[in-house]
Structure to design on (452 residues):
């Protein structure tokens, strides 16, 4: 017992008030160990997301024509939607998993900004893809929640997932006039763009100005076309989102490992200094004790 | 007066039409063909593409009239610039032909025909036939019909 006590630097510090920088050797050792463990975890998470990112990036390449192809038709046919009409639909695309920087909160922020701009009397419904967006939006706009999908982000999204979401939207019976999908577009490992992609209802496509240019269109073709187009857009969004999420998590975990490394260095320094101080003090005690004899 | 008004009107119309035509005077076709797993062509220049659609199969040459169509199970044939002919089986999807002569074929699934397994198709065809016969509800029947048609198209593609 005496030995333990003599190892503590500040004997007169009451144990209940922990003063930073004046911790005992044991405290520092415990802290050092926990930070080292955290660093191990963040390092391995970085490795995992690096592997997942490589796969997501590889899979993103064939998925891009789905988004671009569908968008280019909407551009060429000059399909527009009127935001003064009353029924709006918002699709907010994130995933279930966190620890990936501000990627999900950026989507939520964009959704909130759109909602704040909505005129009075506009009726909007929100579709949440992924738990992260659901948790925030549910609290703020409980009345407007329409559908939510979870189990997103564990495995790479497939076309079947996108078809399922598109099917749910189609079969919900909600006739929206103005639809927007929010998702992150992957730019590079360190950057992504939070983008708003209009999703057009069948009516908006049917009333597009330049649609008359297109040959041999009947109602059936247009309906099937628009359904598949919606599924492709969602698929594109899911893929872009998954890729930016993994890359962002990779960066976030790299940062976390670096910070933990800095912390370990500092703690190690304090630990050594404190240990040295204890040894010196013990020596002084012994020497002065011997001198007193 | 009314004649004049009529004239000016048609005049404007014609100008509009001619502008539209001159706008898409590209001789090339920008062809994109993709499935979720593979992007086979991206803005590639090809001679001709034959596609199976719900309203019948048709060929697409450069400067095709803008159109939308829905793919049905069948073979997409691509005639490349150097004369090579590639065949892909698709299960469904969209065909878009825009006024800038860009063509997008987005398939739900697409595979080169030479990758298909004849034995598996024969088995599947027999199984879907059975399902079609034993289906009772309308939804079941429709689903069985879809898979039967797909297998039929698959076996046809191999012939």
């Amino acid at each position: 017992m005496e030995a333990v006590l003599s190892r503590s630097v500040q004997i007169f510090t009451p144990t209940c008030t922990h003063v930073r920088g004046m911790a005992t050797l044991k405290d520092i050792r415990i802290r050092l160990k926990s930070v080292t463990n955290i660093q191990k975890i963040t390092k391995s998470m970085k490795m995992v997301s690096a592997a997942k990112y490589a796969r997501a990036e590889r899979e993103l390449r064939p998925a891009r024509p789905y988004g671009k192809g569908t968008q280019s038709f909407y551009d060429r046919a000059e399909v527009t939607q009127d935001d003064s009409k009353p029924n709006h639909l918002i699709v907010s695309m994130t995933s279930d998993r966190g620890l990936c920087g501000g990627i999900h909160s950026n989507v939520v922020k964009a959704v909130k900004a759109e909602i704040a701009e909505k005129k009075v009397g506009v009726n909007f419904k929100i579709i949440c893809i992924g738990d992260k967006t659901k948790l925030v939006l549910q609290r703020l706009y409980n009345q407007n929640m329409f559908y939510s999908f979870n189990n997103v982000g564990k495995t790479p999204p497939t076309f079947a997932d996108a078809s399922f979401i598109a099917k749910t939207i189609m079969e919900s019976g909600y006739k929206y006039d103005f639809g927007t999908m929010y998702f992150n577009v992957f730019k590079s490992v360190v950057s992504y763009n939070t983008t708003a992609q209009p999703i057009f209802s069948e009516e908006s496509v049917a009333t597009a100005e330049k649609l008359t240019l297109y040959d041999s269109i009947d109602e059936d073709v247009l309906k099937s076309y628009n359904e598949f187009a919606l599924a492709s857009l969602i698929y594109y969004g899911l893929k872009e989102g998954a890729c930016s999420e993994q890359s962002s998590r990779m960066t976030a975990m790299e940062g976390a490992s670096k910070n933990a490394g800095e912390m370990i260095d500092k703690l190690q320094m304090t630990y050594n200094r404190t240990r040295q101080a204890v040894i010196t003090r013990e020596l002084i005690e012994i020497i002065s004790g011997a001198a007193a004899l | 007066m009314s004649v004049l008004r009529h004239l000016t009107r048609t005049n404007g119309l014609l100008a509009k039409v001619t502008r539209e035509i001159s706008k898409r005077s590209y001789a090339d076709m920008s062809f994109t063909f993709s499935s979720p797993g593979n992007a086979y062509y991206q803005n590639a220049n090809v001679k001709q593409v034959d596609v199976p659609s719900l309203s019948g199969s048709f060929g697409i040459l450069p400067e095709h009239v803008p159109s939308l169509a829905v793919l049905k199970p069948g073979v997409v044939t691509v005639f490349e610039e150097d004369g090579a002919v590639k065949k892909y089986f698709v299960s469904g999807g969209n065909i878009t032909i825009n006024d800038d002569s860009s063509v997008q074929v987005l398939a739900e699934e697409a595979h080169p025909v030479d990758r298909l397994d004849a034995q598996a198709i024969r088995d599947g065809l027999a199984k879907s036939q059975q399902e079609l016969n034993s289906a009772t509800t309308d939804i079941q029947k429709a689903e069985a019909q879809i898979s039967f048609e797909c297998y039929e198209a698959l076996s046809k593609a191999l012939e």
The beta strands of chain B are 30-34, 39-44, 46-51, 58-60, 67-71, 74-80, 85-90, 93-97, 102-107, 110-112.
